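Customer escalation, tier 2.

The customer says the design service returned an amino acid string that "doesn't look like it belongs to this structure." They asked us to rerun it and document both sides in this ticket. The original structure tokens are below, unchanged.
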């Protein structure tokens, strides 16, 4: 593994009973990459994300973040090491306000959520800093005038924008996004694409997305999964041209060839 690799999966599998959802996947994600994972429904993409974020336990294989074995670490320890995720199914606190959702995540980062109680929050300077950061993030994701609304009152697209702000509040080095554009209008998808494109290089992005226009616009590296397996990884052009990929998609979608 080179110094430039942020995340490395080595022979990673996930079994649900006798079913193998992720089958010996080996994969390297370069620091600063915009790396997309595509593949038909049921390919194991979301399961793989669960293994990387720690919401699912790995059956076999190892996951290394920055050279450190994180395979058995719980979610909050991985957040502490710089992993953040937005999920296919929203994980927001619906009754809390937009600002509170981002603040809670910012507090996780300052350590208040990791065993020090609300110590960080009681310090006026830490509170002011977290508030300022939350406001900046809401501005960046395009929700500057929604601070005091309950998350439940947001539109679908706005919720996804808020999820990105929540994820960024933990100052991640690795941002996992599972189908962030699902259910979005074309205008919302475009806005989200611009938001991801504008993220600083310090944030490495690993993205699962069905919208292949978005994938090919954003990604510098594309991995294709099929039936739990790692089929191929390459540049967007290589993947678009791959016969194997065409084969995997045959019967499910023809978008790859468009
Ligand atoms: P994708 O995100 O690529 O559509 P998933 O990772 O969600 O695929 O699912 C991969 C396969 O694993 C599917 O066949 C799915 O039914 C199965 N699967 C996912 N989660 C579970 C689970 N908790 N228990 C049993 N099977 C699961
Ligand atoms: Mg999925």
């Amino acid at each position: 593994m080179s110094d430039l690799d942020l995340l490395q999966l080595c022979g990673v599998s996930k079994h649900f009973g006798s079913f193998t959802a992720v089958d010996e996947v080996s994969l390297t994600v370069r620091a600063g990459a915009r790396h997309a994972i595509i593949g038909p429904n049921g390919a194991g993409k979301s399961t793989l994300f669960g293994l990387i974020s720690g919401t699912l336990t790995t059956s076999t294989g190892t996951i290394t973040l920055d050279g450190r074995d994180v395979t058995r670490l719980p979610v909050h320890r991985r957040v502490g090491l710089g992993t953040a995720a937005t999920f296919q199914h929203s994980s927001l606190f619906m009754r809390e306000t937009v600002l509170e959702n981002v603040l809670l995540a910012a507090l996780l980062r300052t350590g208040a959520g990791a065993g020090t109680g609300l110590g960080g929050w009681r310090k006026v300077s830490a509170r002011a800093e977290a508030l300022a950061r939350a406001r900046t993030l809401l501005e960046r994701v395009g929700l500057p005038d929604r601070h005091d609304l309950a998350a439940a009152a947001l539109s679908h697209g706005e919720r996804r924008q808020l999820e990105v702000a929540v994820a960024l509040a933990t100052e991640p080095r690795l941002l996992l996004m599972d189908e962030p554009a699902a259910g979005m209008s074309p205008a919302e998808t475009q806005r989200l694409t611009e938001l991801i494109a504008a993220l600083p290089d310090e944030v490495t992005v690993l993205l699962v997305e069905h919208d292949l226009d978005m994938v090919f616009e954003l990604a510098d590296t594309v991995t294709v999964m099929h039936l739990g397996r790692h089929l191929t990884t390459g540049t967007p052009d290589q993947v678009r041209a791959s016969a194997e990929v065409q084969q995997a998609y045959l019967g499910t979608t023809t978008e790859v060839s468009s």
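Tier 2 assessment: The sequence is consistent with the input. The two ends are 35 Å apart (CA to CA). Strands lie at 5-16, 19-30, 34-38, 60-65, 68-69, 83-86, 174-178, 204-208, 221-226, 229-234. Sent an explanation to the customer and offered a walkthrough call.
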